[in-house]
């Protein structure tokens, strides 16, 4: 089971996964806004929160929730006389100044054995248009709800309340295009459409979502190019495992808050733009298994917060790594450059990056010897140099060789 963060989280949660675990695993950022929107008071009232005496749920919203629950196969909900006081996970409510409760969050789908969101009947569930009757909704979350009843993402979701901050439609079996109407949700902070069957291009209208902090469109069959990106507060951008073509837009460098970029397993070509060097907060960049064909930009050494750089499986145009290529990348822990058509010697600058834990340079045409300063990489736990043209001794003592054991590969 993948790791998720339920929409009830009360602050921005950014999962900076352990960099020794698989780095392409998608994750979701969930945002909650503490601002006093829609004249609602206090914090969300979950199923385990005592409501105030005399409080009541807005009658129109209660009927809407009944419709939504019936549409997901949860007819039992209609027996609950007050949905905001019914004590079930998956719904959150907040009171206004008149002590009337409004629905602010709806979540469906069994994330794990520890969560108790209402599950969906996968054979007949659908998204009810009654969602439009929830004017204070901030979070809408569906996980594995329509897998046996594939359907497009409803265009009417683009008309949801302007208070909406989180829209997660994850692994639902959705088909067809991403509705351009989603670009109308200008207060949205999280958009997660991971692992559906979505096709067509990424709508340019999503560029209007200037408050986005997490955009995950991974594991679909999206085509076309990546539009010009301009997301000033975006932390996570995951477009991996699609069929995207064209170049990486230079405007990516304007997304100064990025922490994670994952464009892996697409058909992107050309070069990594020089503008990438302006992403001073970037921690993970995975561009593996594309068709990038130019050497590294010189600006890459400006990424002094970067901890994981993964470029495996790109042809890279017979590139030679300059001796200063990685100078300045002092936070780097994982470097995966396998099968990138690299030539020439291994740069000594790598031996000065003492935080390195994993280095994969296998399947290239590197020659010369292993730099002697590799012996200073005391944190190194995995080194792949096999299938190159290297000569000379391995500059590690017996203790280091024993530490890496089978994770040290140097054979030709």
TrEMBL record:
Residues 1-26 form the signal peptide. Residues 212-382 form the Disease resistance R13L4/SHOC-2-like LRR domain. It is found in: Cell membrane. GO terms for molecular function: kinase activity. Keywords: Cell membrane, Glycoprotein, Kinase, Leucine-rich repeat, Membrane, Receptor, Repeat, Signal, Transferase. It comes from the Eukaryota. InterPro entries: Leu-rich_rpt (IPR001611), Leu-rich_rpt_typical-subtyp (IPR003591), LRR_dom_sf (IPR032675), LRR_R13L4/SHOC2-like (IPR055414), LRRC69/RLP (IPR052595). The keyword Plastid does not apply. One of its GO terms (biological process) is response to other organism. One of its GO terms (cellular component) is plasma membrane. SMART domains: LRR_TYP (SM00369). The keyword Cell membrane applies. Transmembrane segments: none annotated. This is LEUCINE-RICH REPEAT RECEPTOR-LIKE PROTEIN KINASE FAMILY PROTEIN-RELATED. It comes from Salix purpurea (Purple osier willow). The lineage of its organism: Eukaryota, Viridiplantae, Streptophyta, Embryophyta, Tracheophyta.
